[in-house]
Every structure is written in structure tokens, then in C-alpha cells.
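Job type: complex structure
Entries:
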Amino acid sequence: MPAVVLGTHPFANLGRTAAQALGRPHLPLVVVAHPIGGVASAAVAGRAEAIVDDVIAALTRDPAPPATSAGAGAAVLTAPDDLDAFQEFALAQGWGDGLPVLPPTPERVRRILAERRGADVVATLPPRQGVATLEAVAANAALAGAGPEHLPVIVAAVRAVTDARFNLEAIQTTTHPCTPLVIVNGPIARRLGVSGGANALGQGHRANAVIGRALRLTLQNVGGASPGLVDRATLGHAGKFTYCLAENEAESPWEPLHVERGFPAGTSCLTVCGSEAPHNVNDHGSTSADGVLCALAGTAATTGSNNIYLGGEPLVLLGPEHARTIAASGWSKRDLKRAFWERARVRLGAFGPENVERFATIDPARFRQRAPDDTVALALTLDDVMVVVAGGPGKHSAIIPTFGATRSVTVRIEE
Amino acid sequence: MDVATPLGTMVVAVKPLARRRSHLAGCRIGVLDNSKPNADVLLGRVADLLVARAGAGEVRRWRKPGASRPAANLDEIAAAVDVVLTGSAD
């Protein structure tokens, strides 16, 4: 059936990329002045007047079919020998992230692949529907500075984010700042040096840095989510350079995340979550679980979270000292989830009325015809609250809101 | 030096678009609102103008519960109308 897509100018590239990925680059896209949101209805109606002739044309004239396109260009390119000049080359190609990259020479890619077949397909990545072969993932691992030992984790992360439940196409293109956070469990974390301890989400841990960076570059380069063009993040966050840590299983009083999800304790797994930057929780005073929950719930219960109206799984990244305090009160991990779900709630009166109305069109059961003093939880059920122990000494934890329209995915790491 | 492409491969065969009629007279217009703010206003006003200026017939409206996932009822929409207006992103 004939269709026409309306989009505002800043999102036109995204619309064209999506149409191309569907094999219909000639699908009509009528561009409207930006923004549409936050504009009075009368003005929006005026924009409709301005484009209706283009819409009529799009629905009554067959566009000329484009030339058939195949392939993504040459498999091997000639780049400058000089490493400094290579940085300019990589930026011009759109391959990098702004930090220095290592050239993905055939020798470097072969070393990273080791005995694996480069032509094997790992996944197809939206929105461009680029095919991530092992060789392509290895090339991005090379750019990121990763070694052959990191490839199994990177490959597992690429597979995990392409699980339909993760909703990768939305996460690649949204205006929300989310990016996959990779949480590693099991023996591979210690063997590779993936830190779950002090400054685990900061700088200084090579495995954390290169694994997260290789995933991001693969998603950008193979998936086509170029920043500012197809990746529409309004602000983004620094985790889009790299966002990877291990769970601090040694210092957790409870079962680790992968065991909670049904994997045997001795297996190496990872979980991907479409995540914002961490919001720190400073609690130096509490000596009981109830006390720490005040700090956790209060930090989490904000009016700016996607989780409030889109559901999903908010993440509590608990520092080991806070975890010990909570466990010393006799709480299980599920007790913690229940208390967080019950107490991290936002008054409807705290939101502007236009947002309550907008939330009500998306989730009428939770938002329509409610009183200002009614509250809403950050997750639809207590089991949607994720709890992971990570970090070093100190009285800090973190709340990580997520994109909402995404589910975290846990996979085994195949070596 | 030679470097391997980090872009992977991509083979997308171009698929045909639905044939357009030369006019919209009597066409049933479908509006698929992507739930972004004012998408209903913009798409709805365009649909109303298609009726007023191009002689289109009735307008039927659907809304996705959010912009982040594909609509689940595309077959239903395709069966009920002759052309569709939809929005992408903001």
C-alpha cells in the first residue's frame, strides 16, 4: 500500500537510512520544520498546510526506482602509513570515536581472529542492516585496541544486543543517551582483567576499556549509527566511548546476576542493558538496610527517567560496603528489590501536567485519572529491578536508569 | 598500508514500492501516530487536508503505544485503508 513518512529535518537521515535498510531507499520522506514537540497545536497545523502538496505528490506519483546497490564497498582500503595521518583518515571515513585508533591492518585483524573463520556471521546490525562478520568485528576490535583474548567477549556482546528483546534499532537511533552497558560474570572476568572493583566504570582497566569500545565501534560502523546523523542522541554520555565492567562477585553477599538468571555459577556470561550514565548514591551514614534504601530510593525517584513511563529494568549498582550493610540486616537480593520497588516512587504531582497527559496516552492504566499525590514506581514489577554489586571500598553506589523500551539480555560467552 | 574495512558487508536488494494511483479521490486514509508529541496533530491535520483538497474519503487513525517499536497491527491497517501517513522519530 502506498505510504509516505513524515519526519523533521534533523531526523531525515535516520529516516532515509531506515528506508534503505528495508530495501526501499525511494520511499517518500516529506520533511517538516523542527521541532513538532512542545509547539502549540495551531503552529503544528500550519506546518501541515505547508507540506500537504508534497504529501499528495508522494501518494500519487511513483518515485523512480533507484539503482540496485550491493555490498558496503571495498573490503580492503589503502590508508596512510603514518599513524598520525591514519587518525585523520579514520575520522574522514567516519570509523572512529574521536580518540586515537589503531589501524585494522590485515595482520592485526588476523591476529585478533586467531583460528576463527572471518567470514562467519555474528549478527546483522540495525539500522543499516550491516552484516557483522567475525572479520568485521575483529576490524573494530583492532580500531579499539583490543587483542585476540577480548574477541569472545566482544562477539558475545554483539550477539546479545541483537536479541529482539534488547530493541537495538531503537537504542542505536534514539534521542535518549542510552548505550549498551556490558556486565561480565564468571571466570573470564578475572582471566582477562575485567574490573568490577575500584573505579570499574572509570579509566585505567584495559579490558573494560577495549571491550566496551569495540562494541560501540562495531555498532557505529557496521550498524551505521553515526553520531549526529543516524544516532540521534541529544546529549549522549561518556559511556558511549566505552561502558563495561565485571560484577564484583567476590564481594557480593548474594548470587551473581548470571546465576540469578539461570546460568551455572562457573560459566562466563555477560549481560547487556541499554543504560544511561550512573547517578551516584552517597550514603556515609546508614548502618541498616532501611537507611541505605532511603538513599537509593531517593536518588532513583526522579521525574526525568524513561523507566517511569516506558517500563524496563532500572539498575541498582550497589557498592560492596552498601551491599554488606543491607545483607547484615538479613535482606536477600529479592528483599532489596522489593523494598526499592515499593519505595522508589514518584508523586504524579511532581510531573508537569502535559507530561502526565503524554504518559497517560502511552500507559493509561498507570497514569490516567490519578490524583496528584498518587505515586508511580520505576518498574512495572519488583522483578524488573536489577541489582548488581560492583565497585571498590567506599560508601557509594549508583542508580542507572535505562531506556525503558528495552530488556536486558544475558548470554554465555563462547571461547 | 592496507586496512580492513570495519563496516562489515551489506547486500540489500531494492524492493518495489506499492504503485500509486494518480489521484486520492475516494481513497481511505490511514494515520499511524508514532506517539511522539504532536504527531497526532500533524498527521491528523494532513489527513484532513487530503480529504478537503484531494477528495480523499474517510480517515482512520491508529496509534502505536510508543515510537520505539514497530506497530504490531500493520496487517490490520493495510486491510482497512488505501494509503498511510506515518511519522519517523521526533
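Summary: Strands of chain B lie at 2-4, 11-12, 29-33, 59-63, 83-87. Chain B has a mean pLDDT of 88.
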